[in-house]
Amino acid sequence: METAAKQTEKICFDTFRQMALLSMEEICREIFHENQQSIKIKKEPVAIRNLVNIFHTTLKLSNEKGFHTMSLRDLSSASGLSMGALYSYFSSKDELLEMIQKQGRRIVGKVLFDHVSPEDSSLKKMRTLIRVHLYLTEVMQPWFYFAYMETKNLDKIQRKRSIESELFTEQVFHDVLLEGQKEGVYKAIDSTLTAGVIKALLQDWYVKRWKYSRRHISVEAYAEFVISFVESAILAKAPVA
Amino acid sequence: METAAKQTEKICFDTFRQMALLSMEEICREIFHENQQSIKIKKEPVAIRNLVNIFHTTLKLSNEKGFHTMSLRDLSSASGLSMGALYSYFSSKDELLEMIQKQGRRIVGKVLFDHVSPEDSSLKKMRTLIRVHLYLTEVMQPWFYFAYMETKNLDKIQRKRSIESELFTEQVFHDVLLEGQKEGVYKAIDSTLTAGVIKALLQDWYVKRWKYSRRHISVEAYAEFVISFVESAILAKAPVA
DNA sequence: GTCTATATCTGGATAGAC
DNA sequence: GTCTATCCAGATATAGAC
Q1: Per-domain residue ranges of chain A
Q2: Measured between alpha carbons, how far is residue A90 from residues A40, A55, A96, B177 in Å?
Q3: pLDDT (tens digit, 9 = 90+) per residue, B68-107?
């Protein structure tokens, strides 16, 4: 009974995947138009195709051995673009790093909060937030991992932005927790620490992806586990079915 | 009443700190004697003083901007040792990386499992494991963070060792969970995922240290929070006081 | 727009003075 | 034992042909 309702309402991972892929190209188009001063290419289709290629390849190589260790020669041969061609899309290796970070933050912003409607119960909000967050990080795993590992290599201002965005996500969970506590759905435990703990569990999914792959655990399974684990810990009474 | 018993039994963070600091010098002495083929220095006191300095400075710089980004010239000026002097303690930058990883793994092995006795109840074992793990990572925060972030830069064999040690820690938690489930103390939920979740919470302490510092949360406070959070989620009945 | 060839710079590593 | 000076590989970045 409850299951039926759940299935119709519960956000589905597959539709999610397509959405994010669509976003990817769109974002590249935006980046292209915004950075036309540093991008020397004029034709949009060419530019976008190559940008997608460059970002994709950079993420792949960096996540194997780190952005700093990846030389532009590596990137050149792996992407099939020459050194010269690369430099018509960015003016320095650091700029490339910044472009990727910016692109990622933007997708997150676009996708993450479209799925929670304010009229939902705090219980439902929380569940949806957890699922959406996990599904998003699954679809964009390479980017999240990259952003996570390469923060140190950013300059101060970019670094600050990255920290802000981390704390902002945590804040969203924090707010829902407070709301639920007011309603009496959740226990009155430290909401800041709890929000941090939830964030840590979500992060583990994309940071330790190798572990979960090896153990053949799907995102959906992990999502349901996290939800039930967290709810066991914070619900005022026994979890609803 | 329970509080009094708890305080006498509960492992104390301050004594813990001293123990780890002592270990540090001892370990450097061991390293010195083992690597006398690559270390050109003969006098023990000099060697140890400089080794401690080198490790300490390397951790500091690397944790700011990454090991790869830290040049040996940076290390030289920050430690006060010349390039030449540095090279009488290791034969390559990679060897320095390996020495630090090895040193760290050794301290962990020395300290981590001395505190759980097999005759304890699984409940007590779990609590002690959580505390000891957190206290240890607190005392050795720079090293743990370093080991965590620089795994990518290791060669295959070292990398494998690092992964093994990660999975081993998780296994310890896993075993205690199973034991507790058999005794009926813990619920019969997925023990692998649960162990992973606990590990993630412990890791958050040293990976996101900046966050907890900023919020003025002490290790002890975090430890107690994690324990109560985890127990709320996994205890078969309501937690004991 | 894309390539090849090349200039320039950075940083790991070593030799030899003190 | 420690320092300075230097070598050289490898990386970023650019110029100019096609």
Answers
A1: 12-234
A2: 9, 11, 6, 52
A3: 999 999 999 999 999 999 999 999 999 999 999 988 888 7
